[in-house]
Structure formats: structure tokens, C-alpha cells
Design brief:
This protein is an alpha/beta fold and 244 residues long. The protein has a single domain, classed as 3-Layer(aba) Sandwich (Rossmann fold), CATH 3.40.50.1820. Helix content is 34%, strand content 23%. α2 crosses α3. The chain is globular and about 40 Å long.
């Protein structure tokens, strides 16, 4: 087992070898610093290095839902990405530090460190790393994508319009220099339809490579927390923009 290490973090990893494998017992890797996080890590079958996807979950309101999402929903997303040939990492943010809008800068810095660690993994091709996120994780994906020049693509599913960070990101959208995929369901109950429309308009007005897909087959905001009918569109984008 190769531990996932990140500067100033305590990493707890569930390592999955292939799409049908079962998670191994979590391994703790103590390093300097008082912060802590954990992640789910899924390796495709075969020989690397592989293109990689870092997937960022949304905010969860209670501890029971948080633990269930970590053990089932987020793990299945990770395994599905690995089944499609991508080394997948799901950094899991601390529950207590993920409940307020003012935690966004903290979450953003933490995500940046996680990406740095992913790019150092022997099985990852550092030139082919995509950043993907849902809801709050979608906003974090956008914020980090505005700052970095070493990512291959950005995927935003139902991004959260959290003030003032979302509006600030839209105002700086000219800094995006990689392909962007946006996905939203028209029945989204959390305001993401408007957020996606604003981002799509801003990106297109600046000539960016953006693909925005709106679904009307049901599922609402939480459609993208599970592998469902939208996955084929994600697969096409990743193969075209990241795997090649």
C-alpha cells in the first residue's frame, strides 16, 4: 500500500485496487502539523502512470449523512472513475470545518495541498490531472482552478453560489485557461441553475473552452452525488480532454 501524504496533514486513505475491489483497512500516516483530513483513493487496474481526477464533495449538514456519504456515495464515485481508467482521489474535508461560508479559504488551501500530493504519486501522470467538484466542492474546484496552471480540465457539477466567493470567481473568470465542463439538473433546488448560467455566460464571453449540459430527467441537486445517467457525458469529456 502506498500512503497518500500531504504536507501538514494527517492522511487516512482507503485504497481501492480496481473497480470491483473492496476498500482495505484505513491506514494512518502521521506527519507534522495540527490539521487533519482523509481521502478515498482508487487505482485503475493495469500499469500506470494514469491520468487522474481529484473529486471534491459538497457540504454535508449532519454527521450521520457525512459518514454514510463517505462510506458509500463518494466511494462509488471514486470507483467509477477508476473503472474508466482514471486514478481517482476524493479528499474528504473535516466535517466541523465545512459548515460555514468563511471556511472557503481554508478549504481552498487544503485542496491545493491535496493536488500537490496527488501529482507526486508514482501512479499519476502529473501532466494529466483534472479537478472536479460538486456543490461546495464545485465552487472550490473553480476557485483553485483560477489559481493553478498545472491542471488539465475543470468539471463543475451543480456549483454552489456562496457569497462573496462565487461572484469574485466570476469576476476573475478570464484566468481560466483549461477546458471546463458544467453539469446541472433543471430541477436543482439549491440555486445551481443560476450559478451555472452565470458561469457559462462569463466563460463564453471571454472565449473559453466550456461545455455546459443541462438535464431535465430528474435528480435535482444531488443527482451528481451518484453514478447515474449523466456519467456518459462525463466519460466523453474526460477521455477527450484529459486521457488523450
Amino acid at each position: 500500500m502506498r500512503p497518500f501524504s500531504c504536507t501538514s496533514l494527517l492522511a487516512v486513505l482507503l485504497v481501492v485496487h480496481g473497480p470491483t475491489a473492496r476498500s482495505l483497512q484505513a491506514q494512518k500516516d502521521s506527519v507534522r502539523g495540527g490539521e487533519q483530513t482523509d481521502a478515498i483513493r482508487c487505482r485503475p487496474e493495469g500499469r500506470g502512470p494514469f491520468p487522474a481526477v481529484v473529486w471534491n464533495h459538497g457540504r454535508v449538514a449532519d454527521r450521520t449523512t457525512f459518514e454514510r456519504a463517505r462510506q458509500f456515495g463518494w466511494k462509488r464515485i471514486c470507483e467509477a472513475l477508476a473503472a474508466d481508467g482514471f486514478f481517482a482521489i476524493v479528499p474528504i474535508r473535516e466535517f466541523e470545518r465545512d459548515t460555514r461560508p468563511q471556511d472557503i479559504p481554508y478549504n481552498q488551501r487544503e485542496l491545493g495541498r491535496a493536488i500537490d500530493a496527488v501529482k507526486r504519486l508514482q501512479d499519476v501522470d502529473p501532466s494529466r490531472v483534472a479537478l472536479m467538484g460538486h456543490s461546495r466542492g464545485g465552487l472550490l474546484t473553480l476557485l483553485v482552478g483560477l489559481e493553478r496552471r498545472d491542471l488539465k480540465a475543470l468539471i463543475l457539477t451543480a456549483p454552489a453560489e456562496i457569497p462573496p466567493y462565487f461572484a469574485q470567481a466570476v469576476g476573475r473568470i478570464s484566468r481560466v485557461d483549461v477546458p471546463v465542463l458544467q453539469l446541472v439538473e433543471e430541477g436543482d433546488e439549491m440555486g445551481s441553475v443560476g450559478a451555472v448560467a452565470a458561469l457559462d455566460k462569463a466563460l463564453r464571453s471571454r472565449g473559453k473552452d466550456v461545455r455546459t449540459l443541462r438535464y431535465n430527467r430528474g435528480g435535482g441537486h444531488f443527482l451528481f452525488t451518484r453514478v447515474d445517467y449523466w456519467w456518459d457525458d462525463l466519460r466523453v469529456f474526460l477521455r477527450e480532454k484529459v486521457a488523450s
